Amino acid sequence: MTEIILHHYDLSPFSEKIRLALGFKGLPWKSVKVDAVPPRPMLDALTGGYRRVPVLQIGADVYCDSEVIFRALERLQPAPTLYPSGEGVAKALSHWWDRATWKPAIGILVDYIGEHLPEAFLKDRKESYLGYDISKDAMAPMLPAYVQQMTAFAEWLDSMLAENGDYLTGGKLSAADLTCHHSLWLLRANCGAEAIDAQLRLSPAVTAWMGRIAAVGHGQFSDMTPEEALAAARAAEPADSFAADADPTGLNPGARVTVTPNDNARVAVEGRLVAADAQEIVIARDSAETGTVHVHFPRAGFEVLAAAATARSAA
């Protein structure tokens, strides 16, 4: 099997859920560390400029966003599944959690460690990623609201566990558990578990659930350089089995399209449409650094438009 390569950095909560997914699947992987603040020229060569982390690479197939990474891992190794109770609830809960908790979690985080964040990091997140100032002083006025929101959401987790048992969607771990774990993991790892547990009134059921998720671990991995990852793409041909011609808006294979996140880090990636259905889209990109790569995106949370239409709207 072609090596699984994860482009990530240690404190990225979205990367943490993929590291846990790889551990849960028992899949060995290669670790390519990237900077928390761009530029990331070698990763950009693989993705076409996609701004966010993590990115998963298998040969010349590149996966952007954790939802499509989960989907790729399910194709690669169906068991144990990330969707033991079906995909719908787990995906909907994950999508909501990622968006609803991100800003309040950051607001609480910077209250604890904001003075230690590099100026370059703060500048990047304001100007290129989130579009708002996440410095400690800027976030402070809304801190009570952020705590209120996270406390409410934590009680919802407690209610799900009371109804379903050890995990959020039933008796077995799902993608929803890995997703809902990551915001709390970020806070507990950086601010102190005792302090966060008290501030957000995390119940014993929720903290025990956190422990079960953390115990999954990251599996077996070894380091790889960005240069080696580029060489792996260049030496391979796209090989993922996903194939579909069912774009819900009638885009046809071969059309040039742009794919853009619809929440933050709104950098458009342009390529030639290869495959699409209601859940996933794949575009081909060619470069001297990588050869031909297929870049995979989820449909939820992304806008896919004909490249000509994008150009007209920008004019």
From TrEMBL:
<dbReference type="InterPro" id="IPR004045">
    <property type="entry name" value="Glutathione_S-Trfase_N"/>
</dbReference>
<dbReference type="Pfam" id="PF13417">
    <property type="entry name" value="GST_N_3"/>
</dbReference>
<dbReference type="InterPro" id="IPR036249">
    <property type="entry name" value="Thioredoxin-like_sf"/>
</dbReference>
<feature type="domain" description="GST N-terminal">
    <location>
        <begin position="2"/>
        <end position="81"/>
    </location>
</feature>
<dbReference type="GO" id="GO:0005737">
    <property type="term" value="C:cytoplasm"/>
</dbReference>
<protein>
    <submittedName>
        <fullName>Glutathione S-transferase family protein</fullName>
    </submittedName>
</protein>
<dbReference type="InterPro" id="IPR004046">
    <property type="entry name" value="GST_C"/>
</dbReference>
<dbReference type="InterPro" id="IPR036282">
    <property type="entry name" value="Glutathione-S-Trfase_C_sf"/>
</dbReference>
<dbReference type="InterPro" id="IPR050983">
    <property type="entry name" value="GST_Omega/HSP26"/>
</dbReference>
<dbReference type="Pfam" id="PF14497">
    <property type="entry name" value="GST_C_3"/>
</dbReference>
